Amino acid sequence: MLFCRSGNADSSCGTVSFVSVLLLLFIFQASSGFGQNPSSENSEPPSTSTPEAALAVSPPIEFAQKKFADVREGYIDLRWNAVEGAAEYQVVENDGLVVFRGAFPQAMISGLANGEYSYQVKALNAQGKLIAQSNEPALITVDHWPLWQALSLFSVGLIVFLAIIFVIIQGAMATRETQPESVFVQKEIAE
């Protein structure tokens, strides 16, 4: 049962609806994003009859930025020049795995662990034939923030949060203590 019927007095109805919303949110998050269709490791690249002839017509693809040193967050936004006649772009990791497929000349690659990565981009026409590719790879070095730094910043945030809660509680208690006096003063003025 994904959704509750109106008039149902069962107390688990709200829980089921909440769980179903979480399930749908998970399914939405796990699906491929707009313009992306990552491939599996077993997928074969589209075959081209003569890649040299196709590449001789188009200029090579150039990345807007070729070297990314000290990426701390584990994600990168790759951009490259658009190729006329390209229906699809593929970003290929150095091991041959296609990590991005899309129609736009940019790719957001996330989930990178510490290490060095190399990416090439290929442009395919509507028939799936290779029309251009990058000559120089984009080189990325990922070095995440150290755990001690993340935990210390979390601790500072926790202390500030608790201090704000303390000030709010003290203000509420001070108002509560002065309130009976103000009521008593108002009664005296009224008499």
Q: Name the average pLDDT.
A: 78
User: How many β-strands, per DSSP?
Assistant: 8
Number of domains: 3
CATH fold-level assignment of the largest domain? Immunoglobulin-like
Q: Please state the structural category.
A: alpha+beta
What is the CATH top level name of the largest domain?
Answer: Mainly Beta
Task: Please indicate the percent range of residues in DSSP E strands (runs of 2 or more).
Answer: 15-25%
N to C succession of SSEs: HHEEEEEEEEH
Label the CATH architecture of the largest domain: Sandwich
Question: How far do the termini sit from each other?
Answer: 65 Å
Molecular structure report:
The protein has 191 residues and is of the alpha+beta class. It has 3 domains: 1-31; 36-142, Immunoglobulins (Immunoglobulin-like), CATH 2.60.40.10; 147-191. The chain has helices spanning 12-30, 51-57, 147-190, and strands at 67-71, 76-79, 88-93, 98-102, 106-109, 115-124, 130-133, 138-142. Strands 1, 3, 4, 6, 7 and 8 form a 6-stranded mixed sheet that branches. Strands 2-5 form a two-stranded antiparallel sheet. The radius of gyration is 29 Å and the shape is elongated. Mean pLDDT is 78; it is low at 33-49 and 51-56.
